[in-house]
Amino acid sequence: MGREAYITGIGQSEVAIRTTRHPLLLTLDAVREALDEAGLTIGQIDGVATFPGKSSGNLGFSPVGADEVIEAMGIKSKWHVGGMEQPAQLSSIANAAMAVRLGLCRHVICFRTVYEAAAMARPEEYSRPRSELLDGFVQWTMPFWAMSAACWTAQYAMTHVERYGMTREQLGQIAINGSKNAMLNPRARAITKEVLTLDKYMSARMISSPLCLYDCDRFSDCSTVIIVSAGDALDEVKCTPIRIAATAGSVDRPSWDQVDWPAAYETGADLWRNSDYRPKDVDTVQFYDGFAFLPINWLEGLGFCERGEGHRFIEGGTRIALDGELPMNTHGGQLGAGRLHGFGFAHEAVTQLRGLGGARQIGGDPKVAVATSGGGPMAAALLLARD
Amino acid sequence: MSIPRPRPRLDEENRAFWTGGAEGRLMITTCGDCGGHTHPPRLLCRHCLSENVVPQSVSGLAKVESYTVNHQAWAKNMEVPFVIARVRLDDAPSVILTTNIVNCPVDAVHFDDPVRVLFEEQDGIFYPLFEKVA
Fold first, then answer.
1. Which end of chain B is more exposed for a tag (fewer CB within 10 A), N or C?
2. A163 part of contact set with chain B, CB < 8 Å
């Protein structure tokens, strides 16, 4: 146990659209909740990890960085990191797990604060990317008006449409399942007001085929905190610790348009290589759904079904429902509960493993969960277990 | 589309790609040692790490690897719908380009369609677009 890493406290601010609360205070809300749950004080925190770090050129995307949290909250840090150049959002939790295993620190605040809706409403205060000369990866997509990850993801989704016969009725089950679960999640009230019907889904306007409006997550304002603690520090916490049983994040081609298959496939295989658990042991999955097609990649990549079969696995929505064989995105996912950018999936996996899901709690005394983040060439997966 | 396309910043790595269209040439970084292609273009070969790389013209023939019909207007006055595609180059099959398929109805594009390059010039940048081979 000494060299294991655990998730202890978890916390989350309100999930809002155009909040007026300052993003550092949203972060404080989430930190306070996580500390209270773990029974820790801020003085016991000695590490901070985040993705992607403060994004000065696009403050809505990431208005708060690790440096700022250390300074503002009086943390005496022994190890911290923030950066975009890692496999995907949840990699910051995997990094923290490595740090506590190495004994560099004992309790790490991992956080992701998003402020994209509020920033849109106050552009003079929160900078937006300016249209200037393009460099880096986007110079290969934006000149052709592939402006959004929606256009990039849509092209991978079209592979399933043309090669494997995916229908809109099948794809729609991700958003419909998310809306049903979000209606049972009190924190999703600002995002989901009613259950999405198949009729409404089918009549939605197209964004980038086959992705329609309901297949794309929506800018939200929120902070989510996950505290990662060393196994030999568990006597300091009062909540049920959740063991980080394995992590993976394999990336070959960071360019969104050069990969043959999204990184979820290799990362999925590597997660099992790094663990003795197998897909049949998993009680619930929390799969990144910034765009509705991405969970289909994760289902296939992690081996819950064959490659090219993911849309048939979710057909009708019964298997992935709360009472199904593999409950998915039980809080609503990003489609139903807001674009929290990856961290919401880890938060929900821990909530379910502790039996604290309230009206959305799955049955069967869940012990093992997978949380993922990323899409296209980005991928990071966590395997979480309650011992 | 009537509005100006976003422009890349020209540099030592990408200049040949974005300006080769002035001579009607699609320039892809090619290794003089192993023959491999590197895209996005770099000053080294991503297959063998050789610095003996040069931009060389390829035929401009390709196959549609995937596509999407974009309906969302991402900028004011953008005309929609249009086709965004990833095309795999016939004579540099490790290279995929994101592009637009033009000169046909949006519902006429499918996987594996043979396409060929044509260039759209805008202030010295030659954007490689593709059209279906009749």
1. C
2. yes
